[in-house]
Design a protein that fits this description.
The complex is a heterodimer.
Chain A: E1 14-15, H1 61-86, H2 95-98, H3 106-120, E2 122-123, E3 134-139, E4 144-151, E5 159-160, E6 174-183, E7 188-201
Antiparallel strand pairs in A: 1-3, 2-5, 3-4, 4-6, 6-7
Chain B: H1 2-16, E1 63-68, E2 85-94, E3 97-101, E4 105-108, H2 116-126, E5 134-137, E6 145-146, E7 150-155, E8 165-171, E9 174-188, E10 194-197, E11 216-218, H3 223-226, E12 233-247, E13 250-264, E14 266-267
Parallel strand pairs in B: 6-14
Antiparallel strand pairs in B: 1-2, 2-3, 2-4, 5-7, 7-11, 8-9, 9-10, 9-12, 12-13
The chains are: A alpha+beta, B mainly beta.
Chain lengths: 202, 275
């Protein structure tokens, strides 16, 4: 499912934490980099989920915490996906694993792909995607964090296990937009939407 | 010479690209819906069992819900005894119209987001709607009246026979409320005539020499002359219930008809000869 980029409704505490630099994402509200990025693009590389403190100086502690937790969940979702796609048939049921990081509708899509790869004899046994996630908005009222990632799949080929033939077609990196929400029942942040934008190279 | 050779090699490389043949920037036609990665072959499994139909009334819902597949395909091998699991599909809607249907997923039932349409049916099932209670003046079972005199017709105004009534069904964070009320009553007078009314106006206790303001009738034929055994005209009142529901980003409407039967005795008007 493709969804339009959510506009920031007026009156909401919706904080643009930082914007893309170098990625050509949605020109309307993602890439309008009139202001300097507030957060460094090192969220996924942060040690113990910590973000560079100087980049967070203009955000509240609550927003910082939400951004860090959401990015950690988002990174975790990719780590799991890389692990699962390495050998999709390694487990008969991946849902318990995926429910740690995803909720619907993203959960259904992610699980469907792993099972689909298993059934089709596909896997991505080597490598992992190169990513560059950045938080673009934190909505504390809705406990929602929006992330824009720049993903390069050329380092994560998909193959037919039986033949070794490559199924993925190399492309330049493009934008993936994700929304991560806090699920009070689960007590953790979960990726709820993940929308690739192959038409937006970065 | 070298330039020509390089150009030829470059063209071969482009033509050998799986996704594109003639263009230097081929359009990828198959993508991983999660990652967007371009593929030669889609990994989406089939959708065993097909899917349920749409329907459910007008809706402007835009978004995705997990829907239980109906009928349910058999469980995957080895999962026959996994209680609580079910086959679901992520179904996405744009302005109420199904836009896409995801792959079949064997999923623990608690993960299934409730379908507002299913909740609507649960809420509607909680509504107690009864056939109308027929009232006439003169009343049924009485000595009746005579040809040409106005009859008042109405139905009892109780919540169960006229509404409005409402009920709510909830699952998780989704609640759907259904509301029902009678919007019209179709009277079959038994002599071939019908009248479409609302609930009608009750005949005042103190009496009235006027016809009903909104639901009346004057028989032109005596039932005693036309009904076998000189009996009453059979009456029926069919109430049309409008049932609307809303919640979970969707809404819809249904209708239900409930009928009650009665009778009224209409006699011939005899004029005494004064000679």
């Amino acid at each position: 499912m493709t969804r339009p980029v959510r506009r920031s409704p007026p009156g909401l505490l919706l904080l643009c934490l930082f914007v893309l630099s170098g990625c050509s994402s949605d020109p309307d509200d993602l890439a309008s980099s009139e202001t300097a990025p507030l957060l460094a693009p090192a969220a996924s590389n942060a040690v113990d989920g910590a973000l560079p403190t100087e980049a967070l100086s203009q955000t509240s502690p609550e927003e910082q915490a939400a951004a860090v937790a959401a990015v950690a969940a988002y990174d975790g979702s990719w780590a799991l996906d890389v692990q699962a796609r390495r050998d999709p048939g390694a487990k008969p049921n991946w849902q318990l694993d995926y429910r740690q990081y995803f909720t619907d509708p993203a959960l259904s899509v992610a699980l469907g792909q792993v099972y689909g790869m298993r059934d089709a004899g596909l896997a991505s046994p080597t490598g992992e995607p190169s990513r560059d996630p950045r938080v673009v908005a934190v909505d504390l009222d809705r406990q929602s964090v929006e992330i824009v990632d720049c993903v390069d799949f050329r380092t994560w080929p998909e193959i037919f296990v039986a033949t070794g033939e490559q199924n993925s077609i190399p492309e330049p990196p493009f934008v993936i937009q994700a929304r991560v929400i806090y699920d009070p029942a689960a007590g953790r942040w979960l990726v709820t939407e993940q929308t690739p934008h192959p038409d937006q190279p970065c | 010479m070298l330039k020509r050779l390089l150009l030829a090699l470059a063209m071969i490389a482009v033509l050998a690209t799986p996704a594109g043949l003639a263009s230097a920037e081929p359009v990828c036609e198959v993508r991983d819906p999660q990652t967007g990665a371009c593929r030669v072959y889609a990994a989406d499994p089939g959708t065993p069992g097909g899917g349920g139909g749409g329907g459910g009334g007008a809706s402007t819902f835009t978004g995705c819900v997990n829907e239980r597949m109906s009928p349910q395909p058999p469980p995957p091998p080895g999962a026959e005894n996994s209680l609580g699991n079910t086959w679901v599909q992520s179904v996405c809607y744009v302005a109420g119209i199904e836009s896409s249907r995801g792959p079949a997923i064997w999923m623990f039932q608690l993960d299934v987001a409730p379908d507002p349409r299913v909740l609507a049916q649960e809420a509607i099932s909680e509504l107690i709607m009864r056939a109308p209670t027929i009232r006439t003046a003169p009343p049924q079972g009485s000595a009746g009246t005579v040809v040409g005199l106005p009859i008042w017709m109405w139905v009892e105004r109780s919540s169960e026979t006229a509404g409005p009534i409402s009920a709510t069904a909830s699952a998780g964070a989704v609640s759907v409320t259904a509301t029902a009320r009678v919007i019209e009553v179709l009277w079959d007078l038994g002599d071939g005539s019908t009248r479409v009314c609302g609930l009608g106006t009750p005949y005042p206790p103190q009496g009235s020499d006027r016809p009903s303001p909104d639901c009346g009738y004057s028989y032109q034929m005596a039932s005693t002359n036309h009904v076998p055994g000189a009996g009453p005209w059979p009456l029926s009142a069919t109430a049309t219930w409008e049932i609307t529901w809303a919640g979970g980003g969707m809404s819809g409407a249904e209708a239900l008809e409930l009928t009650s039967n009665g009778s009224i005795l209409i006699r011939e008007l005899y004029v005494l000869n004064g000679d």
